[in-house]
Design brief:
- By secondary structure, this protein is an alpha/beta fold.
- The protein is built from twelve helices and 14 strands.
- A seven-stranded mixed beta sheet has the order 1-14-11-10-9-7-8, sandwiched between helices.
- Helix 9 links the parallel strand 10 and strand 11.
- 53% of the residues are buried.
- The N terminus and C terminus are likely disordered.
């Protein structure tokens, strides 16, 4: 169900408080910690499912240029899992999240996933971050028949054709980019360029932009690629500006997006910049000096994290306060929180003696599940739980809800 919503202008967010030490302390407090090595298989209920706990495996960036994405997603998930454990777990089993750092590098993601399955005995994989990283592990997911739940990517390769073991919480990048292009065209911005990351993520986004523009009988006026996690964007900025665009779709993580935004600002461009949600709203804004973030657009695939009128947002804020000394809210941590609820519902439906096949069946049985203002819908031929997309625009004045 597409939620067109109204535009929102985001003022500078409160400073980031999710330092690794704080995250670890919060995890310890919540009882959701990185596990010691445990044997895989041979357990009641299948690998990763003992009479006392369910082990979930996560590979994501917790260090390096893209660390903020993984850190924020994990703390949101931990806030929900901590509440589940406080209530006695799922069918008497506590959830234990094993998180390994891949620095947003596919080779590390693959190595981490092997360890999660073989050494940590993961029952399921959860909360991976990024298109190239997830692409790297799909053959292993298929070979081991282990479900992958709620990866932070809107890539087409996880949706078409249907991946039988992958379940997506978020809307696709195609849905995000369709919405951004429609908005630009509605404002009379027909000269649209594309900056894209030179990997599977960027290729997916570039293809999505082309498809979105075709609907308006348009083509990109310029295209340029940047390397993953790179801030070297001078050449890309020159190539984009050569097309004289009045709108630019940016399909990249925040280090490159921020550097590109600064470069266009320096060169005096007035083109409207629009980012897909993966950029990370807080990370992008933190990376830009005062005033330079003003007016930059970012697509979002979850509700506004400061709108307590939405019941699930009020619950998110309350539970985040339990695992943080000074609560800090944002889109990525709210996505992790919602993803953890999807994961928990699938485990509940898998029954008291769960198997991976039962988890898949449980997730596919979800119909019109309302988490409190955010609805989920899945089925045997539909593994995309939500199609919500909303556009937000960064602001320049100090603001805090």
């Amino acid at each position: 169900m597409l939620n067109t919503g109204n535009r929102r202008t985001l003022r500078p967010l409160p400073p980031p408080l999710l330092l690794p030490a704080l995250l670890l302390a919060a995890a310890l407090l919540a009882g959701v910690v990185v596990a010691k090595a445990v044997p895989a298989g041979g357990r009641p209920g299948g690998a990763g499912a003992s009479p006392r706990e369910l082990v979930l495996g996560q590979s994501a960036p917790f260090s390096g240029p893209s660390a903020q994405l993984g850190l924020e997603y994990r703390i949101g998930a931990e806030a929900w899992f901590a509440e589940v454990n406080r209530r006695g777990g799922i069918h008497g089993r506590r959830i234990r999240l094993v998180s390994r750092d891949d620095r947003y590098e596919p080779d590390l993601t693959l190595a981490n996933t092997r360890r999660l399955i073989q050494d940590d005995g993961a029952f399921a994989l959860f909360g991976y971050v990024g298109t190239p990283t997830v692409k790297a592990v799909l053959p292993l997911v298929e070979a081991t028949r282990i479900p992958l739940i709620a990866p932070l990517t809107g890539a087409r390769l996880l949706r078409q054709p249907l991946q039988p073991l992958v379940f997506n919480l978020r809307a696709s990048y195609q849905a995000e980019i369709d919405r951004m292009v429609d908005d630009l065209v509605r404002e009379g911005r027909f000269r649209i360029a594309v900056l894209y990351q030179n990997d599977a993520f960027g290729a997916d986004g570039l293809a999505s932009v082309r498809r979105a523009l075709v609907r308006h009988r348009l083509k990109p006026v310029a295209m340029a690629a940047v390397q993953r996690n790179s801030r070297e964007v001078g050449g890309a900025a020159r190539d984009i500006l050569a097309g004289d665009p009045n709108g630019v779709i940016v399909v990249s993580s925040y280090p490159s997006s921020a550097a590109f935004s600064r470069e266009l600002y320096r060169r005096g461009s007035s083109a409207q910049l629009m980012n897909v949600s993966f950029v990370g709203t807080r990370a992008l804004q933190d990376a830009l000096p005062g005033g330079q973030a003003n007016g930059i657009g970012v697509a979002q695939v979850v509700p506004f994290p400061w709108d307590r009128r939405v019941p699930v947002v009020a619950s998110y804020q309350r539970l985040m306060a339990r695992v943080q000394q000074r609560p800090s809210y944002g889109f990525n941590s709210l996505e992790g929180f919602l993803a953890a609820q999807l994961m928990s519902e699938g485990l509940r439906r898998a029954g008291p003696n769960p198997s991976r096949a039962a988890l898949v069946a449980g997730l596919e049985s979800i119909r019109n599940l309302d988490l409190g203002g955010f609805r989920l819908q899945l089925g045997p031929k539909d593994h995309d739980a939500s199609s919500v997309v909303e556009l937000t625009y960064l602001g320049a004045q100090p603001w805090e809800p």
